[in-house]
Amino acid sequence: MNTALSLDNSGGLRYSPIVPPTLLTYLLKGFIPVAISGPFGDFLFQQVQTPEAEVWYSNYLLVKDSRINSISKLPKLELQFGLNNTFTYHGKGLGDRELHDGSFNLLYVPSVDNQLHLQAGRIYTTFDIHLSPKLLSKLAEYFPVLGTFLDKIAKGEAALLCPLNQVTTIEMTRIVDEILKNRYMGTVREFYTVTKVMELLIVVLEKISNEPIIDRIFFRKEEIEKIYTAKDELLKNLDKPVSLLILSRKVGLNMHKLKSGFQQFYGSSVLIYRLHARMKEAKRLLNDTDDQVDNIGYATGYANSQHFSKAYKKYYGHTPAQQRKTNGQK
User: Fold this and answer.
1) Averaged over 260-282, what is the pLDDT?
2) Got the DSSP string for 16-34?
3) Region at 93 (left for phi over 0; alpha for psi -120 to 50; beta for the rest)
């Protein structure tokens, strides 16, 4: 890590290779971890480095509200995804900005000098790819949207590619998940990571070029929190039927706000978001456990194995049994 971190009331923070017990479940195979722990909470940063890019997966768990200061004299060109909760930044060059759960942007700063505000009792997660201007320049011919952004980088000016953060699509989420769960080793692992980084970058640039978000529906802070709570409720109850009316009442948000909130922050309806989460969890259980296919279907909300197998094949293009076979399991 070349970025110095500090808290307003605690001074400089020290990195350690020891992963805090509170964040062990976030540890990834093949990533290099460094952590920070103290009375304020725990941070875990995990990195994979390739010749083309650095991949970072970062988790923050605070026990009290904190403001984290980040300082680095080196430039940073970063494709940044918010995976969980809202990050509130104030930084030199880019001013005040937020990165919501389910959004992304591409940014450049000639040096890092910002403050990150985090609240107690929450897990904050980002997925970031540190890129080089040279790599982006290779793509500028095909994506003119990069032109002004690269001009600012050449002048040493801070820049955001998009005035508004963009919505992370299901396809982007899939690629991010594949990078995080890379099962290969050695040179094949590096090749796979580079390939997926380029795939993700192209998907991002195609989305921004063809379907950019240029306007947003305004949500109050308390409404955003309720949308996050609704998302958490869905993820905690994948095995249970869902009623949008009951869900909206449970979180204290009307149906219209709930639907438009999911569309804005996650780029899909509530039900499509839930389907994606169910399929993602089913695939994880098939790959990482020895549970029977029937039980995995029940755990992800399907009444019988036939319905589960049909839904899984429609989503992934192959059956759960074929997924097991591909993963080397019987």
Assistant:
1) 87
2) BSSPPGGGGGG--TTPEEE
3) left
Q: Please state, in angstroms and rounded to a whole number, the distance separating the CA atoms of residues 187 and 244.
A: 47
Tracing tokens 């722990």 back to the chain, one arrives at 37
- 315: region left, alpha or beta (phi > 0 left; psi from -120 to 50 alpha): alpha
Cα–Cα distance, 311 to 296 (Å, whole number):
13
Query: What single-letter amino acid sits at 273?
Result: Y
The first and second tokens of residue 154, run together, are: 């050449």
Q: Which domains does the chain have, with CATH numbers?
A: 4-210 (2.60.120.10), 221-326 (1.10.10.60)
Specify the amino acid at residue 301.
G
**How confident is the model over 244-267, as pLDDT tens digits?**
999 999 989 888 889 988 888 887
Q: What is the pTM of this model?
A: 0.81
CA distance 286 to 306: 16
Distance of CA 21 to CAs 15, 102, 299, Å? 15, 26, 27
Measured in whole angstroms, how far is the alpha carbon of residue 300 from the centre of its chain? 22
Identify whether the C-beta of residue 120 lies closer than 8 Å to the C-beta of residue 80.
no
Classify the C-alpha dihedral 308-310-315-316 as positive or negative: positive
CA distances 20 to 32, 33, 38, 62, 303, Å, are: 14, 11, 10, 12, 39
Q: Chain centroid to CA 304: how far?
A: 32
Residue whose C-alpha is closest to residue 311's, from 297, 326, 290, 325 = 297
- For the chain, the C-alpha Rg in angstroms (whole number) is 20
